[in-house]
């Protein structure tokens, strides 16, 4: 059984259009914040990864499905987990909910790269910290 990362977001006025509906691109920001908090929860940050491993984590692709709208002052929950992993990248599934309703489902392909943008092997220390959050088997 895999574990999940959880993060809560409140929708602010700046996140919405004139009708009080969350602008679609802001969901990407919410997902990014949840991934950043997931890193913090295992003892890492983007800056720490840069300093310790000379690496960055970049988004290679994102497949997102908008199921329902969120509105001004809604409280949203984001559940994230690692769906699969390769030597240099991993897929993270993220689900945004409001109460029992699923608002957004996304699959994000994240890649470890060096400062020149070339894919590198995921540092073993980070792999070990993420391991409890893996859902599937490792792909080569």
Question: What does the model show?
Answer:
It is built from 3 helices and 5 strands, in the order βααββββα. By secondary structure, the chain is α+β, with helices and mostly antiparallel strands. It has one domain: Roll (Thiol Ester Dehydrase, Chain A). It has a 5-stranded antiparallel beta sheet. Strand 4 and strand 5 (101-113) form a beta hairpin. The two termini are 21 Å apart. 26% of the residues are buried.
Distance between the termini: 21 Å
Class by helix and strand content?
A: alpha+beta
What gyration radius follows from the Cα positions, in whole Å? 16 Å
**How many helices?**
3
Task: List the SSEs and their pairings.
Blueprint: E1 5-10, H1 26-41, H2 46-53, E2 56-66, E3 75-85, E4 89-98, E5 101-113, H3 124-130
Antiparallel strand pairs: 1-3, 2-5, 3-4, 4-5
Task: Name a few traits of the molecule.
single chain; 140 residues; alpha+beta; Thiol Ester Dehydrase, Chain A; five-stranded antiparallel beta sheet; 3 helices; 22% helix; elongated
